[in-house]
Amino acid sequence: MKFGVESEGEKMSANDTGIFNEMLSGDQVRAAYTNLEQWHRSMPAELRSLKQSEAEALFRRVGITFAVYGEGGDPERLIPFDMFPRVLTDPEWRRLDRGVRQRAAALNAFLCDVYDRREIIRAGRIPEHLVTNNEAYEKAVAGFRPPRGVFSHIVGVDLVRTGPDQFYVLEDNCRTPSGVSYMLQNREIMMRMFPQLFMENRIRPVDGYAGQLKKTLASVAPKKCQGEPRIAILTPGQFNSAYYEHSFLADLMGVELVEGQDLFVEGDFVWMKTTEGPKKVDVIYRRIDDAFLDPLCFRPDSMLGVPGLMDVYRSGGVTICSAPGAGVADDKAIYTYVPEMVRFYLGEEPVLENVPTWQCAKKDDCKYVLEHLDELVVKEVHGSGGYGMLVGPKADKSTLEAFEAKIRDRPENYIAQPTLSLSACPTFVEEGIAPRHVDLRPFCLVGESIELVPGGLTRVALKEGSLVVNSSQGGGVKDTWVLAE
Amino acid sequence: MLSRTADHLYWMSRYLERAETTARLLEVGARNALLPDLSGGYRNDWEAVLRAKGGYELFKEKYDEANQRNIGTFLFFDAENPSSVLSCINAARENARVVRTALTSPVWDAINTSYQDLKQLQRTERSKLSLNDLSEWTMRVCHLVRGAISATQLRNDGYSFIGLGTSIERADNTARLIDVKYYVLLPSVSYVGSGLDQSQWALLLQSMTAQRAFNWTYTGEITASKIAHLLILNRQFPRSLLSCVQWTCDHLDDIAAAYQMPTRAQDVAHQLLDDLSRAEVEDIFDEGLHEFLARFMARNAGLANTIQDVYLHGMPA
């Protein structure tokens, strides 16, 4: 599916597929991409491969590597970086910006509500069992209102695009969305390698993120905290696939990066072990799952957490970001109801649409899904990372049959969506550039105010025709530009 | 600073220093092997090298013969040997990686680049690598990292913990290097003062890059007592035991000042410094060089344990 604008034939092939190529509008290169199109055409092949290896060396030197769960091999593998940037115009971004902020606000309002008065359930807008029977629902925090009523302080909203004006929310990530370090580093590396591009295009900066994150975390310090709150990032440790990101963010914010073994509970507070003795910690940005936070409250075999942490949390001695229990809002079964949340809590119409979703838990939906399995994408309700997923049109007969059996066995475990014709962005390949499917994850911060830096992480499916952009399955990343007006 | 962070910084520099010592031993051994074997009375020199490093038993389990090739593999490339250059550089880099944010990027670059180079060396044919090249490479890496630390690290408590790792490890390692001499000579005490004895002492100087230092500091011919003085008691020589202990004390004093709170670590360190300052070369030889060194290593290790307890476990009493 090689394309370009050099010849009429190739242009046609790009359009014929019915896939929206973000660089093109009809036969023409869109204004936002004119400069990039010239840039890539005037770049000799040798220079390109030189730059590509330079980029890789930079990534490796700063240590951005990525461990893939359960795959073995090199634990310090690089996520492939594609140098061709993805561009969003000012009007496009303004809409996304409004939509993402709106969604983040609604999700937090929902979380506050379901752990308190449950008005949305009483109003009959969301079925109760979806909340209370949800694995991510934490009984342990029912009735507890975290500082400023914020449960999810960092909301990662995964977006896909199917046409010039058509964006869909694929899923919400309310717990600990990762990837923001790539957003920042991709930009850093592009600026270092191609400064000219940044003089020729008016690209809005993203480097305010760390400052905003720190401000957000400080703004939710517990009431008992006096003076400047002490913030720490809680990581599962160096063997976690996102460890680089944890240490990168700690560094940018100038806060401590701690493991469970560095913290302990005494009296009404959480303390960290330092060379000068114990120091109180007020806000914990945790990058470990609920289940591992506190062996006394959740999994007793967890070595990653801090015994007694939940007691301190519930008595207002420490703030945990995101709050335990936030996961109930980003579950794939709850996802269907997010537009409803926007209407219910904010009294607004949703700016961003959901992908139409069939819930196999519903009889009629399930019937439809089973009849159209070869056209649909089926996902596990609690799955993530692109695992346990069926892409109907790409699956062979035996895979389809196996999935059918799984759905019949536990229908409530699955949802299905139409195979979207995801947009594609020009991406460097062996012979030049070719369109590859992309998604977008902006990172929205919720504290005293709602903040969103203009940009996000663009993931790209590097394999021709592939729709799976997950870094754990061979996806790559791109710098994402939002152009100033 | 987080105790765990301090712990990683401390061990990073300990392992780095240890890598350098292994490289120096490799060089001593390689050169020693070039000396004529005039008598069946003393042991194989390579064996002496291994004994000084405490890896003799492991080596015997894995290799048939104590020849140059096997020893080179064992001391440089063997991942099962915890003191091999490979193991030490990997461990130093692993410690550094965990606390990346406490290091400047030039320091991290220097450590990470050596790790990548080492991988390259592993893939290189052994016939293309001389022992000299390997030991020189290691020392260059260590100088580079220490240079980056000295030129770019903030002079805060983290810097002091890095320094402590170096000074504690170096004190131990200098003592071990001197001790090689003891193993080489045993059991033929009669060799003391012979021509061979002289050349072995000279070799020891070479292994510590101290020939010129010796010539500048002492006049006349090379004698055991002058060399012992240089390596143990000379305050000008940066690898001498006294210099190392002084350095340990300085770092501990800096930490106490920064925290405005001395601990028993400072007491233990200054006690060791006082005793060492009062020592004379004659007393050391009277006690027996090996006995003196063993006693010193035990006290130095005790000091290291105190530092661990007080600062690196995070729960000072």
UniProtKB/TrEMBL annotation, chain B:
Pfam families, alphabetized: Alpha-E
Protein name stated in the entry: DUF403 domain-containing protein
Database matches in InterPro entries: ATP-dep_Glu-Cys_Ligase-2, DUF403
Residues in DUF403 domain copies: 1-312
Protein origin, superkingdom: Bacteria
